Amino acid sequence: MGEEEAVDYTEPEAEAPEAAAEAAVAAEQVEEADAANGASEAANANGAPATNGEKRQAPPHYYSAADDPMSEPPHGTEVFVGGIPRSATEDQLKVFAEAMGEVHAVVLLKDPQNNEQNRGFGFVKFKTRAAATDALEKLAGKQLADFPGQNLRVAPSQSKHKLYVGNIPRDLSKDTLKAELDAVVKGVEVIELLMSKEYPGNNRGFAFIEFYNHACAQLAKNALSAPTYTMHGRSLNVAYAEPKGADQVPTQQVKSVYVGNLPASANEAKLKELFEQFGEVTKVVIPPSRPDKPNREFGFVHFSERSVVEKLVQDAEKGTKPSLDSNTLEVKMAKPQLQPELQNQQAFMGGRGNFGGRNSNFGGPSGGRSGGES
After folding, report:
1. Which pLDDT score is estimated for 246?
2. pLDDT, tens digit (0-9, with 9 covering 90-100), for 26-51
3. Count of CB atoms situated within 10 Å of the CB of 79
4. Using CA atoms in the order 125, 126, 128, 131, what is the torsion angle rounded to 10 degrees?
5. Does residue 170 contact residue 196 with C-beta atoms inside 8 Å?
6. Residue 277: helix, strand or coil by DSSP?
7. Could you give the CA distance from residue 26 to residue 22 in angstroms, rounded to a whole number?
8. CATH number of this structure's domain 251-334
9. The overall pTM is greater than 0.85
10. Is pLDDT at 98 greater than 90 in this prediction?
11. How confident is the model at residue 13 (pLDDT cuts 50, 70, 90)?
12. pLDDT tens per residue across span 349-367
């Protein structure tokens, strides 16, 4: 069984997700679009015609080396807006937001299947944090003037402004590291350089850097990751910092089991009927087939009570496993995502925790090492 097969592929519920989770989803989709569009996004950054024929007001998540990142508003000025009518325009969203303060930029992502519609969410970047704070407090549940009856959701943007930087020379102090960074990047505001306990005076080979805004962080990431850049002869490992546990769910919250070794005849109705003998089944999911895997050999069964899941897993570990159409099924605790809709969003999420001393809420890059670099 591949690692990815232990993850619950259940589709999100029909009801709208929480605005904060939506913000992370939307932010990641913005970054994915930027990465796909590359230089064309940079060309559009100053209002050049986009492919949909509309003017884009400075896409907030793509910057070129020619841009001055300090000209962008600081971190904390951008908000996510969800529940936007699909036919609404950036101008309509801008007018709506201007009641809170001067707007720096507005972005509505276009539906890839229909350029005449947006995806139902967007971002508003204000000139000041105060305006963004007012928007968070006062715009949630409000409606665009041209679309009565459709309430909007508002949450802080998940744009990232903090970097993990590894393979730093161990003899650098915080001041010398700051000087090294200031020579090549802009907007460094906070440096957490972890020091070695075993070798006093030496750092542990990595640091967390907080920048003025996402533009500074993105351009710094590009500059410090460039093949031509070294710090005292060392190439750096650079990634956006991720909150510890950002992709984890406490095991005590899991109420679903992974079911493997399904026969080709298996379907969701059969699985539901089989597992209802153990407890109330709330949902059964077998992931859709793929060209390379026409018969998915695993699925997920959700129960209303966690105690049912615990007993099923314990029994399976002791050798008592259910069977379906002559196949003995594999039963394990499912490993659900924190939010199903966040599966592809983690790369864009900047943390909300602090970078403070021993109690820092940030580890290394997502998927990377959190200990010292050599």
Report:
1. 46
2. 555 555 444 444 333 332 332 322 33
3. 26
4. -120
5. yes
6. coil
7. 6
8. 3.30.70.330
9. no
10. yes
11. very low
12. 333 333 223 233 333 333 3
Write the pLDDT tens digit of every residue in 138-150.
999 999 999 999 9
Q: Could you tell me if 330 and 259 are in contact, meaning their C-beta atoms sit under 8 angstroms apart? A: yes
Token pair for 149? 């009856």
In what order do the strands lie in the sheet containing 237-243? 188-195, 203-211, 162-166, 237-243, 362-365
8 Å CB contact between 353 and 360: yes
Chain position carrying tokens 């968070």: 136
Q: Indicate the CATH number of 162-247+343-365 among 3.40.50.720, 3.30.70.330, 3.40.390.10, 3.90.1010.10.
A: 3.30.70.330
d(CA 365, CA 337): 18
Q: Are strands 103-111 and 114-126 parallel, antiparallel or unpaired?
A: antiparallel
Q: What is the DSSP letter of 234?
A: B
Tell me the backbone φ, ψ of residue 18, rounded to 5 degrees: -60, 145
138-172 burial code (b ≥16 CB/10 A, e <16): ebbeeebeebeeeebbbbbbbbbbbbbbbbbbbeb
